[in-house]
Design brief:
Elements: H1 10-28, E1 34-35, E2 39-41, E3 46-48, E4 53-55, E5 59-61, E6 66-68, E7 75-77, E8 82-83, E9 88-89, E10 104-106, E11 111-112, E12 117-118, E13 124-126
Parallel strand pairs: 1-4, 2-5, 3-6, 4-7, 5-8, 6-9, 7-10, 8-11, 9-12, 10-13
């Protein structure tokens, strides 16, 4: 497991540990989501159609992101994937109107930065294929 820098003061480490604890707790409360422990979920993350989403270890959904799993092939996130703040992943419309999208596969150690939008109506692969 990676170690924190020795240059970080104890009060700053405590702040990091507390924030990380709450992200893990929110991850534990996302029933129906298939994942390998741990998963980190920030504040106000919206995840719908969870049964179509599979996550590897150390997946991070940062605060205010929207992840909609309604896709023919689902959404697959490898290990150590980060979805940035305010990012939206929408393979189809909110209400299932029109065509259902194909989905998304993100390989290990991949990320989408803050404010990203992935429509994935067609199949999208980011990083090394799973």
């Amino acid at each position: 497991m990676p170690q924190m820098s020795t240059e970080i003061k104890k009060v700053d480490k405590l702040s990091i540990y507390i924030k990380t604890f709450w992200k893990i707790m929110r991850g534990l409360c996302k029933f129906g989501l298939k994942y390998d422990f741990p998963i980190f979920i920030g504040k106000s993350v919206e995840i719908t159609h969870r049964k179509h989403i599979k996550c590897g270890k150390n997946v991070k959904f940062e605060s205010y992101s929207e992840i909609h799993g309604l896709a023919r092939d689902g959404l697959h996130f490898g290990n150590n994937v980060t979805i940035g703040r305010y990012t939206e992943i929408r393979p189809s419309s909110y209400y299932g109107v029109g065509n259902i999208g194909s989905g998304l596969k993100m390989g290990d150690n991949s990320s989408i930065g803050p404010y990203g939008f992935i429509g994935c109506s067609g199949k999208i692969i980011i990083g090394r294929s799973l």
